[in-house]
Structure formats: C-alpha cells, structure tokens
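Homework help board

Subject: predicted structure for assignment chain

Our instructor gave us this sequence and asked us to write out the predicted structure in token form, then describe one feature. I got the tokens but I'm not sure how to describe them. Can anyone check?
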Amino acid sequence: MKRLEQGPKPYWPEALTDLNITSGTAMQIEQVGSKQRLKSEWLGSIGQQHVYIRAPKGAPRLVLGTRLRVRMLQDNWVCAFEAEIYAHIDKPEPLWVLKYPSTFEVARLRQDHRLPVAIRVRVDGADPLVGPERVNALMTDLHLRGAALESHLSLGEVGDQIFITTRLDFAGTEHLVMLAAEIVNQGDTPEDSLYTERYGVRFEPMDDETRVYLCGYLAELRLSHLGYELNANPD
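My token output:
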C-alpha cells in the first residue's frame, strides 16, 4: 500500500478490506494508458482473490488481462488501485471480475486539509458602521474550519468578526453561502499576488445546510485534485 498523505494515528487501513467498501459504491475506472473514464459500481470481493464490479454501460468487452485504474470514495477515504480483468460474467447481469489488487493508494478527506482555491468573495463587517462593507476579496485556500483571504482593502483587525459571501459549485448546482468568520492572523501576501492584504480566518459555527454543502464541495474538490472526475449527471 502506498500512502498519499499522512493519516491520523494510530489507525490507517493496511488492506483494502479495512475500508469495508459497501456494495453499490460508485467507482470510476479507466484502461491504463487511456484517458477514457467509465462509471461502475463495486459489488463485492471474495477474500483477497477477486473483486466483482458492474460492467460499465456502453463499455466494450475488454480482453482478459486488460489493466484498469480504479478510483472510489468510501466514507472519509479516497481509494485507488490497478487491477487486471480476470473474467466476464453475463448472467444474471453483466459483471467484470478483477484480480484482487496487490497494492492500493489511500487518502483521508481530513476536515482541516487546506485546499488551494481561487474564489471571488464579498466581505462585510459585523458592524456596518465600522466596516468593511461589500469589499471584494479572493479566497486562496479553504477547509472546513477556515480560509485565507487576499484583498486590496483592509478587512479588519485580528479578532474582528466578518461575513464572507460567495457562490460555490457542487454536484452540478450553484449555492449561495454566507460564512461568519473571525480574523485570526494578518500578514503580507506572496510576491506573485495581485493583492496587498492577506488574512487567515476561522469560521464560526454554521447551520447544518451550509456545513453539509461545504463538506460536499470540499470532498468534490479533493477528489478532483486526486484525479477523480465526478459526473454530476450520471446515466
């Protein structure tokens, strides 16, 4: 097994079975060396010998021994492995049987994993008489507990509360979110930045709908960074 990132100790899955992958889990597969990506589902495995997946719709009948690259999301883990096609099953439904992978890659979707972004946001102060008011800024990294903002104008001082408003695209939908946050640090922007002010902010407790949407957005973004292409309009 190859680790993609450091995981929380002491637990880290050492075998594919440790992930307890459930039947029906969506998978993305592609033939090694090909950029074509197909959708399938994990159906189960027999020991550490074979893996059963649903034959992708519209996929050609690949010859035995064809090597596939497989990616999936199970609970809070992103998993990827390569495996050869061992057999085809036609009844009661078309299935592909893969040889059980000898190694796999795994990454944890940590809540505080900072992801680089470039999202336009609007920033308002908690007190409209003090400011800031409708200041345009750029969010440059994001995680579930906070973010980094860059701006030409002052967003406040350390300890000030601000409100961040933006639109996030997730699962083919656009959602308007407003996040209450506290400025926790202030510093200079990187030399290659177009802005002059940089702030680190910590999010205040958010409502359930916003938290669920932000979690989904971050998970989709993390999967994209790992090469997992999500289709918002499955067949």
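Reply (TA_rk): Your tokens look well-formed. For the description, you could write something like this. The chain has one helix and 14 strands. That's the kind of observation they're looking for.
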